[in-house]
Every structure is written in C-alpha cells, then in structure tokens.
Amino acid sequence: MMARPLFVLAEHRMGELRDITFEMLTKGHEMAERLGAELTAILLGHGADGMAEELAKWANRVLYVEDERLKDFNADAYQAVLAHLIKERKPILTMIGHTAYGVDLAPALAIQLGLPIATDCIDLCFEDSKLYVVRQMYGGKVNVKARLKEAESYIVTVRPAAFKPGEYGPVGGQVERVPSPLEAEPEARKFVEIITPPPGEVDITAADIIVSVGRGIRDKENLPMIEELARLLGGVVACSRPIVDKGWLPKDRQVGSSGKTVKPKLYLAIGISGAFQHIVGMKDSELIIAINKDPKAPIFRFSDYGIVDDLFKVVPELIKQLKELKGEA
C-alpha cells in the first residue's frame, strides 16, 4: 500500500524559493518519518525546473504543476490547483507558510474543502493519529497546545522562523510533473506586479547581522551611533516596539510579535529589556549578544553573551575598536 503524502507548499518569489519553504520541509520530514508518510513538496509555477530539482533534495516527491498562470502568486489560482491535488492525493496534512501568501490562501482553501485549519502555528505533531498544534496567545505571553477535530486531512499555516532548516542529507526525491487543472484565467483578481522596497530600504528578515535598539537609547539623536556600529559590522539597524511608537524608526524595522521575525547569524540587542513580545521575534538567531545596564533585564536569559554596562560607554568603545581593526581610525 502506497504511503499517504504529507504536503508542503513551496513558496517562491521572483524565481527564488523562500526560507519558509525549507523550514516547513524540515518539520515535515520529521513528522513524515514518524507517520510513515511520503514528504511531498508542491511547486506551482512556470519555468521552475531549477526549483523543482532543489526541492527534490529535501522531499521524497515534488509535485510540479507548470502553468504560465502560476508564474506569480494568485490566491484564486493556487486554491483551485491545491484543492484538486488534495482531493486527488488525500494528504494527511498540508503545510502552508503563515505569510502574505498563506494568510490569503489557506482559510479559503480550508472552507472550500471543509477541512480543519490552524493558523500561525509555532509547532505541530501527531499523537494517536490526532493533530496537535502550538499557537501563541495574548501577545505571545502564553503558548497553547490545541487538538484539531479529527479529519481525513488537515491544513496548517506555519509561522516563519518557527523551525530551523535542517541538514538531514539529500533525499533524492522524484519530480513528478502534474497537468495543470486550471481551466480558465482567474477573473476575481489578477497579478499585476511585484513592488519592491525603494532603494535604501532594508529587509531585516534577510540580514545576517542585526543591531537592534530599544528604549535605552533615550533619544532619537543617539541613533546615528547605532547606525555607525551597524555599518562597521556590515549589518542593519532594527528595533523594539517603543522605538517605532516614538516614530524614530519605521515599522518595517520592528522585531517582535507585532513586527517581524528574524533569525540572523548575529543579533546585537542594545538597550532592549527583553519583553516576551520582542523575544519571540528574535529568539532563533544563531548568536545573541545583549548590552543593558540592568543585570536583571529579561533579555539576558535568552542571550549567548551579555554585557552589563551603560550602552553609551560600550557602543562608542566598540565603534573605536572596529574602526581601528578596519584602519578607519
């Protein structure tokens, strides 16, 4: 008897697979092994053979639906194709990223198919053939483990950075081309264009080094010091919510439950106390260093290294040392 599939919807933009795809495949691999299921990546696109081959390294099977109408994301087109695949292949679970794509697509898909859905999950597992998910409530202060109503199949959306992409070795999966079930161009909405941030804008989610600042900076006039440190480190400046609330930095620089989730190689938290709402947005960073004069600041509980001192003493000294190393002194 052929193993039932576990679907992971590959998310891609401008010809590149997004990180959330590999994060979900890693979690999907773990669950598929326990369930004896076939980890199956779903790729909807056009001229995406390279992406299909890349996904085959991570999944047992890649179902590649090629259609010019799927080159760019359209929730109506994606819904029609996914509904067809789910009805035909009967996956145990369909995982979709909790991104702008997934938030648009997943609820409507679940309603169409009459399937249980859980959104913005930070963990999930099967116990006695029942699906359990972990979600955050009350602004991230409480983690709730919930069981979905028993069903033949489930749909979940997964929060970006909830899982780290694993290194479980090449799977050597099979790429299976599936004829497109789309009969006509979606009429309700059409893809027009991708609007990228203007030059000079920063995508903190893609940064390897983040220098993040909190209310300890005291005044907007002190921000250039943080920007200079970030420049010397080759990183970008981010912040906690109070800095955005004061209007000192734009919303797209905010890290936390009401901002963005990041996972850089280095996260330098300066003058940030470490409210849980901020922690959930950066806790999966590879290396976390905190500078705060309060030895009891919660941020230290999540840091690999901590400096208990006045940031206005530490940061200028860091800048001085970095300039000397770079020959800028």
Write structural notes for this entry:
The protein has 8 helices and 17 strands. The strands form 4 sheets. It has a 7-stranded parallel beta sheet with strand order 7-11-6-1-4-5-12, with helices on both faces. The protein has a 5-stranded parallel beta sheet with strand order 14-13-15-16-17. It has helices at residues 19-35, 49-55, 75-89, 100-113, 223-233, 241-245, 276-279, 311-326; strands at 5-9, 12-13, 16-17, 38-45, 61-66, 93-97, 117-121, 123-127, 130-137, 142-147, 154-158, 174-178, 209-213, 236-239, 266-270, 288-291, 305-307. Helix 2 links the parallel strand 4 and strand 5. The longest helix has 17 residues, at 19-35. The protein folds into 2 domains: 5-178, Rossmann fold (3-Layer(aba) Sandwich); 204-326, TPP-binding domain (Rossmann fold), CATH 3.40.50.1220. It is α/β, with parallel strands linked by helices and 329 residues long.
